[in-house]
Structures are given as C-alpha cells and as structure tokens.
Amino acid sequence: MMKNKHELVGLDLNDERIETPAFVIDDEKLEANLEFAKTRCRALGVTLRPHLKTHKSWTIAERQMVSPEGPATVSTLAEARYFAVHGVKDMIYAVGIAPQKLRIVSEIRRAGCDLKILLDSVEAAKLVSDYCLRTGETIPALIEIDVDGHRSGLTPENPDIVEVAKALKNGARLAGVLTHAGGSYDCGSIESIREAARCERDGIVAAAEMLRRAGFEVPIVSVGSTPTMAFAEDETGVTEIRAGVYAFFDLFMANLGVAPIDRIAGSVLATVIGHQKAKGQVIVDAGFLAMSRDRSTQRQPTDYGFGLVCDVNGKPIEGGRVIMKGTNQEHGILEAMTGEPLKAEDFPIGMRVRVLPNHACPTAAPYRTMLLLDKEGRVKEELFHVRGWDVSSDEADDE
Amino acid sequence: MMKNKHELVGLDLNDERIETPAFVIDDEKLEANLEFAKTRCRALGVTLRPHLKTHKSWTIAERQMVSPEGPATVSTLAEARYFAVHGVKDMIYAVGIAPQKLRIVSEIRRAGCDLKILLDSVEAAKLVSDYCLRTGETIPALIEIDVDGHRSGLTPENPDIVEVAKALKNGARLAGVLTHAGGSYDCGSIESIREAARCERDGIVAAAEMLRRAGFEVPIVSVGSTPTMAFAEDETGVTEIRAGVYAFFDLFMANLGVAPIDRIAGSVLATVIGHQKAKGQVIVDAGFLAMSRDRSTQRQPTDYGFGLVCDVNGKPIEGGRVIMKGTNQEHGILEAMTGEPLKAEDFPIGMRVRVLPNHACPTAAPYRTMLLLDKEGRVKEELFHVRGWDVSSDEADDE
Questions:
Q1: What is the structure's pLDDT at B318?
Q2: Which of A167, A260, A332, B12 has its CA 20 to 30 A from that of B160?
Q3: What ipTM was reported for this prediction?
Q4: Domain that residue A233 falls in
C-alpha cells in the first residue's frame, strides 16, 4: 500500500491518487509573495528575517530567506532543529524561553547554528545567565518589547528593560530587542496599519535607545508582522523585519487589505461527499482538522466561515459566494454566503474543490506533506515539513 | 540529539527531558472512562463500536474495543489502514464516501479487514455499485440517517432510503443504517440528552423498518454520540453504539453534564514562560497549535476560553478559576475567570501546568506521541498514533 515519496509529481488535482484533504500551494503565487517581502525590505533598507512557522518547510524557507544560512525566525525548537540541520546559521526562537529548553538551545548552538532566544523579565534573564555560568556557554538573548499590549514583552518606556540587560550580562549576552506588532491584526484600515507600523518602530527604537544610553550594545532591533511589513513607510533605527504569513497569505490578511484574495497561495483540496438538498448544503471531506478551528474572519468585514470555496483551479466559485459554513472533525458544510441554496447538480459527488483558509498557519500545520503546484495546476513537488514539538523526532529529516 | 523512543518512561512531568507542550493522559481516568462505555453498552444490550478518532492510538484502541479485532469506527482512511494493520477486522469509515477513496477501501478490505463505508444518496450508491461491478468486489455500505438535522444523512421518513438500498444492490451490499446524534451536543439538560437519545433511536429504527418492509436485510442499526451513549434509557432495535470522545472527555462534555471535570483524562502540559504583571496575566508555551482553536465552550454555561488550567498533578488551580483566555500560535495567555489579576509569584517561570481542553479530539491530533501517566503522575508509556490523512505514510507504523 506504500507509495514512493514522489509519485504524485505530475498529477493534476483531479487524480484519485491525490488523497483528500490535501494542502496545496500555487507556486506562482508563493513566488510572488516571497518576492514581495524581499522587495519591501530592500526598499525599507532592513534585513528580512522571515518567520518560518507558517509553512515549516525547508524547500520554501530556502527560497524565502535572503541566503540559505538565514537569517530566520522560528516558533518552536522542533523548527529550530530542523532548519539548523538544513544549514541555517542565524535564527531567533521568537517565543519566550523556558529554562527547561536551554539544554536543547545549547545542542542546536553547538551544532553550529547561532540560535538566539527571547525573554522579557529579570527572572528569565537570571535563569539564562545562571545556566550559562553553569555550562560555560554564552547564549545570546533578545529582550521582548510590547508595543501594543497584545501579548508578551515590556513596554518601551519600562525601566526594567535595562535591568533585564544587566541580568543577562552575568553569563548570557544581550543580542538586541524584538517586538511583534500583533495589534496590527485588528486594524480597520491601511492608514491604521501604517500607524501600527510607526508605533512598532517608535517603540522598539525607544527601547534600543534606552539600552544604549545605559551603555549596552544593541546589534539587533527587530520588528515584524505581515501587515506592518507590507505598509511600513519608515524603519529608521530598525535592523530587521520578521514576517511569516505573507508566504501564503489567507482570508484574514485579505480582509485586512494586506493582499487580494487572488494572492492566497495555500488552500485545502477537498472532495464533495454529499448534499443536504433541502438545506441547499454541500458536504465535503475537509473538516476542522483539515481547515483548523480558526474563525478569525468572524470579527472582520467579511466572515468566510471556515473558508472560501474555489473550483479545483483555485478560482472562487460563483464570484466568491460559497463558503465553508460549518465543520465537524472530517466534514465541511458548504453554503452560499447569500443564504440562497446551492444546487446539488453543481457539486456532484466526487467533485474536487479548493478551500482558502482563514488563517494559513494552523491550516498548513497538520499535513504530512504539502503539494506544490505548477502554473497548470499539476503537482511539481511534494514538500515535507516539521510538525509538532518533538525536537528529537526524526520526522523533520523525512525527505 | 535523537532520543530513544521510550526514554521518557519513568520521568515525572517536571523533568526537563519532557518537552512542552506535550499531550498527557491520566491512565486511571482513561481506564474508568473506557470501562464506563463498556458497562453502559452491556446494560443497554448493544455492541460497543468505539470511535477511535479521538486518540487514533492502537494502545488505547486495544483497551477500548470489546475485542482486539473490533468492532471500531474511524473518521479517515489513514486511521482505517493503521488500525487494520494492527489487526482490527470490523470497521466502519463513518464519513460519507468519495468515489476516489474506493481504491483504498478495496486495498484495506483485501488485506483482511471488513471495512464498511457510509453514504446517503442514490448518486453515491450508484458510484459504489458501479465500482464494485467494475472490480468484482462487494463493498458493504451503510446508509446515513439524519435524526436531528445537524449534518449529513437522509431523514428517517425519506423514501429515498429505499432507493439508495436498491442502488446498492446492483454491485455493492447494504450493511445497515447509521446515525450520529450530533444535535445532542447542543442540549441544555440531561433530560434533553435523554430526549435526543430517544429521537436517535426512534429515527434509526424507523429507517431500518422502512428498509425491512421493502425487503432488505438490515444487519447493523448503528447510533452514537458520547452524550446519548451516556444517558440513553432504551436502545431496543439498535444493534450498536458508536462513541469516541468519552475516552478522554473534555470541558465541552463537562459543561453538558456528561462527566465531571475530574474525569477528563487528556490535557496539555505547558511551561510558564512569562508574565504581563500589569494585566495579571501569565504566559505559557502552549498556544493554538497545542490546544487547537476550538472555542466550543463559548456557547455553554461556563466559557473556559481555550482551556482550564490545572497544576502539574492535574488539579484545577485555585478551585478552577484560571483559564487560558487567549492564544497565539505558540503562546497561551492565562487569566483568572473572575478578572482578578494572577500573581506572577504564584506562576514562576519554568513552572509547569496542565491545561484541560475544550475539545479533546482536535487537541490530541497534532502531537507525535501522547504520554500515558501512572497514578503517581510518571510517564508509563509513550503512545504513537496516526496523524493527518496520508494513507500511504509509514508514520502509523512508527512504534
């Protein structure tokens, strides 16, 4: 029953050898999206340090980074190990460090990758410095700055920033400051995204300046989010931008105005398995495990349910009026946005559709492989990627 | 950097060799939950055909089924293949069939497993019969009945049921009727769950009787959902019950009144990585990939956010008042339900907590392994399971 790893190459998406649900990527759109960020960062005069958590794939990372050695950003140590094995030498693990994880950080660093960590308290800085003193290592750490109150970090004016840097000095090393303008996800207009980018820049530069006034070197001044990367006008004082979801884009980003729907590169291939004729519904074999439970477009101008339904070529059906209204674990329920019933004869059993996701990152995560499509919609390559958190898994080497 | 597969056995959950987030299972609670369903089904005089989609693990399935050969229910063909490889001989793939999948169904059947499929239309029945005529096989199919309008199936009084059976006769074989009382998930009281169970039984028995009057044999009359399994009073005419989430239970089931919180067997082990002192928040390293985006308790009496926070031993902290209020991909934000600020000193960096999920199935799905814990909270066994949809993956054999 086993198939060779690359036997899907050359097939079109109606071929039954392609099992559904499957995560598919339009290579042309992907390429345009990757180029977009490179161009933006060049124009802004900053380094692009892409966040690889959206796809977790080496094949994409290699094209996304400015060099095969990085720089890059990751969200788990499983990603860090995987990309380090593939030769990335400059990485930030951009989630606050837990002391239990330092052992693995050390292993990855000793294997030749300059993996940097993140923290936002004197407590964490002391734990890291103590670890470094015990092991004789010097782990570089960035201080997380909170520019918009959406998650972690010290506010830019908080004097504790200097205290954290001092605590790091006793063993570890200050590598810089980092912020993520997660608040930009709630912007209602392009102008407010520009304002979020200004606020992100002003905050991180203020934090860096506070540290420099206190006598610290601050080599990295890192900002990032896809919306602020897309619309920032001035990044003076910033050294690098991290962004990730732009590689695929998604309906959430489309609603925000960051990219049009036809730039969304990743979607879920599904097969029609039934109808509820009395209700005008169509049932497909992609449910909440295939799409994720993400309902983030619910609070946006257009609520796409669990996704926007396209034909097998990736074109929204009937001008974009069919959505995945509901899900069970392996069932997706399609309805017209207008409430008008869908006609069963337009969706025969066995018909394949592609569903654009609300949020690319959780949607891509559970698939063993992702299928890269050429311009004609044929499988060009089967991409392996990291799943889960298990650093010692050999799955990541499975290609 | 690789570790042996079983080197976690014997460790307690504070050991740094256990990476977080991790999915952990209290074996004693699991055992009680598995026994509960067996006892219920014996009392009701019906066969238990557990749904294995909650955990997708052979180790648990073997204890959950009434025999190592089944019967069992699965939600993907990847699960079907995995459990068939482990020796299950009687399985229902309880998601409407797509014609493209018949090839794989055949392969699994030829390998010795009596895998049955599901459909709810003349259109699908014809496709299956045509396939059988072409290949010379006789695939057994159940007709899906919709007793409460929540998803797929024909309503019990729909005369098309007989037409579907007729269409199956030309090649395939009618194996029975099946329904899932998914509507029971919306019940507001135990009495209304009992009513849902009556409605489920009445509907499926009516459908079976319609077929029998038309001259068909209906060997399987299958109902199922964890709530109706828990509270059904009479299953006369039903031959089997399918249920799945009871193996772990979860906050959604607790809110429904199906099981108390202390029966929830599966949780996510997470580590404190920071604080937002001004907001009284604690940040942990389990975000929406670790917990899933499921927010199903939002529409229930108690909204647990993304989960209820327990200490490392699994006891709700401060009487159950700490929840995971928000998530990012790899961040969880803990708050008190009461709005009162959490004290950072009660949650030092590096502290481990366990978070009970809203919905066990999507939470368990992304983990490479699940850790089974003994009474003392030490790792007893590392359980491998199926992930994703790739039937040809060899991952499922990874134990």
A1: 86
A2: A332
A3: 0.96
A4: 28-248
